[in-house]
């Protein structure tokens, strides 16, 4: 037999055969990257109300409000009658301690009486009073000299004294007095002379404050 000849060219491809059965499933591959975030879902229902928190600090004071309307006028109070006495002296006189200064002029009297024999005023209503006295003086003796208020004939209290000779002196005091109290003015240190000037040279005034 002779040698095998060279292989002829391939024939045309035959028709595809029927598909064979599926092979076994391969292993799971690695997880892919996360997908894009989905749209926000609808809002759920409100939860139950929580407990009340602790009270916070007080806030700053607010601005002052507008002034309210003026209230109605109250009823009138009970009037207090004017209680006053004003007396004076225009005669010359020389007075020693323990002797009342003389007064021969009455300028005003209301709810106070004046006795021109004893030169005293009498208080008719209990209250607080202002008592004022002034006089022009000459002084033949040695200083000091002064005046005081005598209540109910007792030695003077509420005294005023000075070392100035031959001048005008004055003083005032505030005191609570009971109804029936008498008031007079007396020298307290030495004999005092009140000169004749033709005018009023001594005045005593008393008025009730309340």
Quick description:
By secondary structure, the protein is an all-beta fold. The chain has no helices and twelve strands.
Would you give an account of this structure?
The structure is a single chain. The protein has no helices and twelve strands. It has 210 residues and is mainly β. The protein has a domain at 84-208: Jelly Rolls, CATH 2.60.120.40. β7 (145-151) and β8 form a beta hairpin. The chain is rod-shaped and about 200 Å long.
Radius of gyration: 61 Å
Assign the CATH architecture of the domain at 84-208.
Answer: Sandwich
Residue share in helices? under 10%
Question: What general form does the structure show?
Answer: rod-shaped
Strand order within the widest beta sheet: 3-1-12-6-9
How many distinct helices? 0
Which range does the strand content fall in?
A: 25-35%
**Coarse structural class:** mainly beta
Unreliable runs = none
Order of helices and strands: EEEEEEEEEEEE
Number of beta-strand segments: 12
Separation of termini?
173 Å
* Rounded mean pLDDT score: 87
CATH topology annotation of the domain at 84-208 = Jelly Rolls
